[in-house]
Amino acid sequence: MPSSTPRSGTDPTGGWRRFREEHAWQIREFFFTLHLLRRNPSAVAGFVIICSMVFLALAAPWVAPYDPIRISLSERLSPPSWHHLFGTDELGRDLFSRVLYGARISLRIGLLVVGIAGGLGTILGAVAGYVGGKTDDVIMRCLDIVLSFPSLVLAMALAAALGPSLRNAILAVAFVMIPKFARLVRGEALAVRERPFIAAAKVSGASHTWIVFHHVIPNCLSSVIVLGTLVVGETILIASSLSFIGLGAQPPTPEWGAMISVGRKFLMDQWWYATFPGLFILVTVIGFNIFGDALRDVLDPRIRR
Amino acid sequence: MDEGVVIRAEGLRKYFPAGASGLWGRRKAFLRAVDGVSFHVREGETLGLVGESGCGKSTVGMLLLGLHRPDAGRVLYRGEDILALEGEAKRRMRRNIQVVFQDPQSSLDPRMLVKKAVGFPLEVNGLARGAEVTRRVEAMLAEVGLRPEHMYRYPHEFSGGQRQRINIARALITGPRFVVFDEPTSALDVSVQAQILNLVKDLQKRRGYSYLFISHDLSVIRHVSHRVAVMYLGRIVETAPRGDLFQTPRHPYTRALMAAVPKPDPARRQPLALLPGDVPSPVHIPPGCRFHPRCPEVMDVCRETEPAPVEVGPDHVVACHLWHGTGFDARRRSA
Amino acid sequence: MNGDLLHIQDLSVRFFTYQGVVRALEGVHLAVRRGEILGLVGETGCGKSVLARSILRLIADPPGRIMGGRILFKGRDMLTLPMKEMRRIRGNDISMIFQEPMTSLNPVFTVGNQMEEVVRLHQKVSRKAARRICVEMLEQVRMPDPESVLRKYPHELSGGMRQRVMIAMELSCRPDLLIADEPTTALDVTVQAQVLHILNELTRARGTSVLFITHDLGVVAHLCDRVAVMYAGKIVETAPVDALFRSPGHPYTRGLLAAVPSVDEDREVLASIPGVVPGLIDPPAGCRFHPRCPAARKECEHLEPAGVEVGKDHWVFCHAGRGKVKGER
Ligand SMILES: Nc1ncnc2c1ncn2[C@@H]1O[C@H](COP(=O)(O)OP(=O)(O)OP(=O)(O)O)[C@@H](O)[C@H]1O
Ligand SMILES: Nc1ncnc2c1ncn2[C@@H]1O[C@H](COP(=O)(O)OP(=O)(O)OP(=O)(O)O)[C@@H](O)[C@H]1O
Ligand code: SF4
Ligand SMILES: [Mg+2]
Ligand SMILES: [Mg+2]
């Protein structure tokens, strides 16, 4: 039986060396991208923010001083102190711990939504742009309808129709985000379609499906990554808004939007309740946005060469 | 009659919509890119197709490759009408007819490893898989003068000439019989062009491929072709064996074309032929002979009647009124 | 020396990029004499355009920088001139035509608008008079129906017509030197023939010197008086055009001449120069051609060849230069 990778030896370092040889270009490009990003202050700022958020989210179980859903009625609504950095809520739960765990939830929502919407949107857009004609019209008109509503309003309507839960909120937001990816990829696919290597692939007998997956989508990937970064920020904002009006995460889940929603009632006297989750939303969204923008600049081929 | 003919094109015609003209855009205008083109290519032969930019050379190639559907005409591969084929039969047929495009860079996907860029035709056609693909890619690369380790690189890491070698490898890996070269060296430097031209000729000698070699460069055409077809505004105006065409060009356009090429030899410096005006747009093709507004030998009949192709020598066909009439007349004029 | 209009001495230009330092020009010497057409030939990326642009100080800095050398135009060093003076020279004394005229014509104005503007920049005349001058200019480049051309937008003209408009515009201020960077590369042969004819006629009649950049040896043989051959950022040979084609001195020039297919004769196999043009980030030491050179010797690998005069006005920068050529004669 022929092995599909005859050249890879059993020696693990040999495998790594070969990987490095085969992917020398990607590795070089990667470091070049890093180099460009390092010279771009907003990219560095965004990157630091995103990394801290990811770190806090991953490390929440170890960093958080308290269980985020442990109720301690004796300490309810206490202001920030050394015991409770961000104070406590109306049930005496430690807000600092809840905000940290909230990062886990928000980032997970962001990644899931970008995964679902990015995946589906890319495929739809690639097919629409590559095939063109009627298929393109049908797909894009349907997506235009989705786009013609403000994202938040549509997500609210969908989430309400599906029933309030975190899972449904994710599905609703993902649905709303699909057209963004699809439009972007369609535009790129339209350009890729005209490149001679597509004609060469057709002449060599490649099917349309093969061409979409092996030529069109790989060539759109870098813009999808940029958009994905921007969409993570937007998603976090919309998902928090849904939770804020009770259509997303349900109590006692420590979701930022949901926390603000309750904290709003105490805003006059207990400012810290709504402020800290709000601050985290703000910082995270800004982090993803400025990093996404910088990434767009850096990956722009006109700037690179 | 079709013994030894690989490809025969009959009356190929391709019009592109060119916006609307006339008041309110009622009258549809057409760009007549290819307007009744017939030719054949024999086994192991190179037919050179030469003409100025926009005369429809690439479109002819696209029609043979099935990348455009002709509005009229047929393409026969060894006597079989390839446009009538469907499904699996069509795919199998397509393997026999391959292409190398002008721009070596954009004919390669920048995000595809050379190994895949050369080997994928084997996989998508179900001809080989796994280690067999690697082996055959390696062999193919060796054939076009690249080394095995080049398999694991990306196109932009190569020079233009090497990239064109990769394209040639991709075109030849499924074992086609007929290859369309669409200006394969126009984007290359002279010293590299020579390497590629030698490679192309050498492959033909060893493997017996048949070529349609498209170029706007007469010297390149002379170098690679066995027979040459000269195209002007969507039509072939003259076809002849290479020697005949370059020694005794018959059509006024062919003559003008040859006399417009500056020769790399200052000792034989002479004024270049100056044709009046520019090539007309293929949307507004002149009536009669389409060359007549620029033709130095234009006659009254040229302005009204389109000249039919006439045979003026063995295998030498010209579409020009100068060569109509008696054979004697024709011979006298050429003398 | 006194006949020199432009004298480039020891010019070096580098580009500082992430990938490394591109040594685009290194120690280039070149002179353009009064009234001559000098051809500059070489393959893609050898630095022809960089040379042309450095004469007018049009190198973007960063990434580019002129590292050293002098560019004497009528005896004055252009590299030390103040920018204001430089701009005056650009408009009046030296003109430039590019390969793709679209890049120098503004797509949103008609040809007439742009030509009039150029005319009125140099001469104080009314719009109407300017229009008349434009028509005359177009007639000089044999443009059919100049009036209607003036009303058109650049994209409505064919490549050959655009190039003729550019020639008309650039020659209108009667420059002493015209730099033409591959002006016919994008054109068809029959149109190229027209453009070459016009360029030749007009510049000869006015005694304008031309630096004509091309990679087409046929065009050089047809048009030029003298030729400079460039390889990988250096001039390797300069010669009167007849001498260059009759007895090329540098192995690279010989390879180049042997590699061109000919319209006049059948060659079974073309002689090709082995290998590829080296990158300019890390060019070979010594003679930059030595890795591909059939005549390379030991000293070629580390020693830069100096210029050898192998014939009248015929300079070769090659260690093997002198002996070989003499032997062949
Ligand atoms: N897909 C298309 N849609 C509309 N017009 C087209 C299309 N393809 C080609 N044309 C037009 O058809 C004519 C012939 O084009 P073609 O590319 O065949 O010319 P060519 O002889 O190959 O020229 P070149 O030497 O510039 O490659 C041109 O006028 C071109 O603008
Ligand atoms: N702005 C730039 N940044 C970096 N490198 C540059 C830049 N401009 C030119 N170069 C490099 O300088 C070298 C010479 O380029 P140049 O454009 O002069 O070549 P050329 O001889 O005109 O080629 P062609 O025949 O293709 O026009 C090339 O290797 C090129 O990569
Ligand atoms: S038919 Fe008439 S116009 Fe056409 S090429 Fe012949 S002589 Fe010229
Ligand atoms: Mg073409
Ligand atoms: Mg250039």
From TrEMBL, chain A:
PROSITE patterns reported for this sequence? ABC_TM1 (PS50928)
Gene3D superfamilies noted in UniProt: MetI-like (1.10.3720.10)
Q: Where does the chain cross the membrane?
A: 43-64, 105-131, 223-249, 270-291
Q: Which UniProt keywords apply?
A: Cell membrane, Membrane, Transmembrane, Transmembrane helix, Transport
Q: Which GO terms describe its biological process?
A: transmembrane transport
| Domain ABC transmembrane type-1, chain residue ranges per copy | 103-292
- InterPro entries the UniProt entry points to: ABC_transport_permease, BP-dependent_transpt_permease, MetI-like, MetI-like_sf, OppC_N
Signal sequence segment: none
Query: Which compartment or compartments is the protein found in?
Result: Cell membrane
Write out the GO cellular component annotations.
plasma membrane
Q: Which domain of life is it from?
A: Bacteria
Topology in the membrane? Answer: Multi-pass membrane protein
One Pfam entry name: BPD_transp_1
Per the record, the similarity remark reads: Belongs to the binding-protein-dependent transport system permease family. OppBC subfamily.
Q: What is this protein called?
A: Peptide/nickel transport system permease protein
Q: Which organism is it from?
A: Desulfacinum infernum DSM 9756
UniProtKB/TrEMBL annotation, chain B:
The UniProt entry, under InterPro entries, shows: AAA+_ATPase, ABC_transp_ATP-bind, ABC_transporter-like_ATP-bd, ABC_transporter-like_CS, Oligopep_ABC_C, P-loop_NTPase
Pfam families in UniProt = ABC_tran, oligo_HPY
UniProt source species:
Desulfacinum infernum DSM 9756
**Tree of life domain:** Bacteria
Could you tell me what this protein is called? Peptide/nickel transport system ATP-binding protein
The protein's matches in PANTHER family, at most eight in alphabetical order, are given as: D,D-DIPEPTIDE TRANSPORT ATP-BINDING PROTEIN DDPF-RELATED, TRANSPORT ATP-BINDING PROTEIN
A biological process term (GO) from this entry: transmembrane transport
What are the boundaries of the signal sequence? Answer: none
Spell out the family assignment given in the record's similarity comment. Belongs to the ABC transporter superfamily.
The UniProt record lists the ABC transporter domain at 7-258
Q: Which UniProt keywords apply?
A: ATP-binding, Nucleotide-binding, Transport
| Single GO MF annotation | ATP binding
TrEMBL record, chain C:
Looking at the record, the residues that make up the ABC transporter domain are: 6-257
**GO CC term, one of those recorded:** plasma membrane
| Main subcellular localisation | membrane
InterPro entries, A to Z? AAA+_ATPase, ABC_Ni/Peptide_Import, ABC_transporter-like_ATP-bd, ABC_transporter-like_CS, Oligopep_ABC_C, P-loop_NTPase
The reply on keyword Translocase is: yes
Q: What SUPFAM superfamilies does the entry give?
A: P-loop containing nucleoside triphosphate hydrolases (SSF52540)
**Compartments in which it is found:** Cell inner membrane
Arranged from A to Z, the UniProt key words for this protein are:
ATP-binding, Cell inner membrane, Cell membrane, Membrane, Nucleotide-binding, Translocase, Transport
Indicate how the chain sits in the lipid bilayer.
Peripheral membrane protein
GO BP annotations, alphabetical order: peptide transport
A GO molecular function for this record? ATP binding
Similarity remark: Belongs to the ABC transporter superfamily.
Question: Do you know which NCBIfam families this protein is assigned to?
Answer: oligo_HPY
Name of the protein described by the UniProt record:
Peptide/nickel transport system ATP-binding protein
